[in-house]
Protein 1
Amino acid sequence: MATVLGVGGVFFKSGNPTALGQWYRDHLGMAVGEYGADFVPTTMPDKGMTVWCPFAEDTQYFSPSEKGFMFNLVVDDLAEALKQVVAGGGQQVGEIVKESYGHFGWFLDPEGNKVELWQPM
């Protein structure tokens, strides 16, 4: 059985990503850069990380969900995890994408939230 190993990212829409990132940097000390803030906890798999990044308000990356956010969960077996969520009533969105830093797959949960699964290399 595939197991979630941690939170791979928190992605959400923002009316002004630059200003919001600046606010978090100024008021909470987050090291926010051009691509958000990276957090690398020791419990993550090798090369795993948690990414925090505001997206432009008009992004289509969360589609087909109508929600203003998307979860990213780190898994140890992406293909198996997608099979499990589909068997549990989730709807797979698109095909697995292979990048140099890992493989990605997406699904809609029973409430219509888009979830991105990431299996790091």
Protein 2
Amino acid sequence: MFNLNDSMRYYLYPYPTDMRKSFYTLSGVVKDLMGHDVRNGDVFIFVGRTCSSMKILHMECGGLVIYHLRLEEGQFRLPVFDEQTHTYKTTWQDLMLMVQGIDMGNCTRRKRWNSHEKR
């Protein structure tokens, strides 16, 4: 079951990832290169070099889960890279748009109230 929602924090690793990596090596990337602890419940997103494969690492009740999506056609469109923080600003909505293949560059995002935004 897909157990992710918009109340979680999402981190997109900013470099291409070898999609042969699994639980332990991706956990090592989270700890050593991203500076986070995979056990805190956050969601970590990794995209392959060709942007046609994605792995999502998440600690759920009982253990680690990897969701793996490989596109038969097309590529994932990554969110805008933030030069100041050297990260991608990623949200649940960004992840869903990436998975569904929707390009926000051609769309307008209407203003909505968001309880997660700082006031």
Protein 3
Amino acid sequence: MAENIFLFVPNVIGYARIILNIISFWYMPTDYVLAIFCYVTSALLDAFDGHAARALNQATKFGAMLDQLTDRAATMCLLVVLSHFYPKWMFVFQMSMTIDIVCHWLHLHSCNMIGMSSHKKIDASGNPIMHLYYTSKPVLFFMCAGNELCYSSLYVLNFTEGPSISFLFFSIGLWRLLFYICIPVAVVKSAISILHLIIASRNIAIVDVAERSKAREEQKNRLKH
């Protein structure tokens, strides 16, 4: 009997993430406590589906794509809400959405074109930054968590400053402090996304050149015969 990959544990976790995100999107304009709880819980489950896939030998291309699409859609929808809360910064949020979606889509597409089994398997002889990003779990977690915390804290900041944190004679709200701390992480992650775009474009260009060269050779052989 053929396996039903749609019922694999990692994919079921993925479905739960989608449900949590939808609930979060619904309550984002009105109930920030419930919204951020569902959003953060969905983000945390992102780590568990990967562990489940490896532990149960249930890694699938469908699961990898589901995971990527859920991440991209969740961040995009949060940025839509932030554009409403902070209209003066709408262009920044629009650019963030564009960079995130376009760069990751092209990276995944290029990996499929060159026959890579996973978008995370970066050759060490290739780009060292990308290699570190995908092979070091602490680095990947820090970058992804910092990016999400940046936007999430900015979202909550629209409703409350949070408890006051004091430094000598200076005090600042918790959510504002977290936002300021995580801004550099979000900027660096966007830069890494652009690096995805550059490397993916080069890989696709290599495929194009090879295919065009092969087509010319086939045409020459046909003319000879």
